[in-house]
Amino acid sequence: MMLRYITNSRISEYLPVLSDFTDEEAEKVNSVHSLIEGFSPTPLRSLENMAADLGVRKIFVKDESFRLGLNAFKVLGAGYAAVKYFSEKYNIPTEELTMENIRKISSDKDITLITATDGNHGRAVAYIARILGMKSIIYMPKGSSKERYDLIESEGADVTVTDVNYDGAVLLAKKKAEENGYVFIQDTAMEGYTDIPLYIMQGYMNILRETAIQMGEEVPTHVFLQAGVGSFAGSMLAYMVNHYENYPRTVILEPKNANCVYMSKANGRPYEVTGDLETIMAGLSCGVASTIALEVLMNYADMFVSLDDKFARVGMNKLYHAKDPDPVIISGESGAVGMGFLYEVMTKEEYSTVKDILGLDKNSVVLIISTEGDTDKASFKSIVRI
Question: Which part of the chain has CATH 3.40.50.1100?
């Protein structure tokens, strides 16, 4: 089998961490995002033909490739975290902030944001730094895509490709921030560093806030969430636990060579995956999970899955080569793995046990979040064969 899975029993206890991911907090996040010129909800696509083919009632795909022209969702976290940092540093309530007064103070104070990235997060930090009048320094792991490098640099960032893996680049960026007084904007919560990772996770909530509005009275029964350090998945799950009376069955998906959340669940404690973390899902190539995210995921997710890169390839092709009336969706390697997982589980006899455990059937309403578009166009074209 090209996947391994662990089932999980939800706890009924309401953990304190959930209080940071309520509908009320999501509205505050949206107010901050609304400061950004051109900010608007991304599309929610309904795949009617695919749903009929796979034997489920509905499939919805939230398409984050349209987020502020950045082709990925990461700006939601980076943007909210940068504004929250600014608000607290200079004691100005977020509701009193404007882009103009942020830019003026940023220019006077010479603020520099620094982070590590496989691509999308770094571009988001560089974009936010540019529009807020700040500087940015971005470290990338070895083997990073030149196209992703160029996109980050085009936002005015000082970009360096390191000779270490993603987690090594994170530690390097953290060290440089401490040595030079830079603002470290990273989504990996760790000992002594939790505020900004929490703000980043809160920023991601706007994805599901928008989705809930777009779905109206329709409620998802199943949600598939991809995980790198787990912050995106943890944010989505924490929001759903608060928002829905009976939140959807939630599956956490990771590449088998960078499955730190899966391995943490398997070992009953935080677990570091080492090595090159090789996978085509660059945005998920992480070996150390965020501590805040792990608390949510370990207690509230229904299943953890470690899978082969094939699932991402399948998902990319199924979304792109859609049959009428389904829309064509351009989803990158990290964005499409949920679609690939659904397709394989519903069509391959070898995964029938997974299908049965999750209760995927004709009554299921599946939500998939495509977190990125073709952020590496050469790779995308080779995989979908165009």
Answer: 3-73+201-384, 75-189
For residue 27, pLDDT over 80 is answered with: yes
Sign, Cα dihedral of 261, 305, 329, 326: negative
Q: Which CATH architecture has domain 3-73+201-384?
A: 3-Layer(aba) Sandwich (3.40)
* Torsion-angle region of 73 (φ positive above 0: left; ψ -120 to 50: alpha; else: beta): alpha
Predicted TM-score of the model (pTM): 0.97
Which of 85, 149, 102 lies closest to 122 in space, CA to CA?
149
Q: Are 222 and 229 in contact (CB under 8 A)?
A: no
Q: If you average pLDDT over every residue of the chain, what do you get?
A: 97
Q: Is 74 a catalytic residue?
A: yes
Q: What CA–CA distance (Å, rounded) separates 67 from 43?
A: 9
CA-to-CA distance for 206 and 36, rounded, in angstroms?
14
Residue that has been written with the tokens 């950045």 in this structure: 70
Give the start-end residues of each E strand in 33-142: 44-46, 58-63, 112-116, 135-140
Strands 112-116 and 58-63: unpaired
Q: What's the CATH number of domain 75-189, 3.40.190.10, 3.30.200.20, 2.60.40.10, 3.40.50.1100?
A: 3.40.50.1100
As a whole number, mean pLDDT of residues 61-85 equals 98
Catalytic residue among 58, 62, 74, 84: 74
84/63 Cα distance (integer angstroms)? 26
Active-site pick, 118, 309, 326, 376: 118
Nearest to residue 143, comparing CAs of 381, 386, 376, 377? 376
Residue 320, pLDDT > 80, answer yes
pLDDT in tens, 152-185: 999 999 999 999 999 999 999 999 999 999 999 9
- 224 touches 368 (CB < 8 A): yes
Q: Which tokens sit at 236?
A: 């989505």
Phi, psi of 222, rounded to the nearest 5 degrees: -140, 135
The Cβ of residue 18 has, within 10 Å, a number of other Cβ atoms equal to 18
Q: Would the pLDDT of 108 be above 90?
A: no
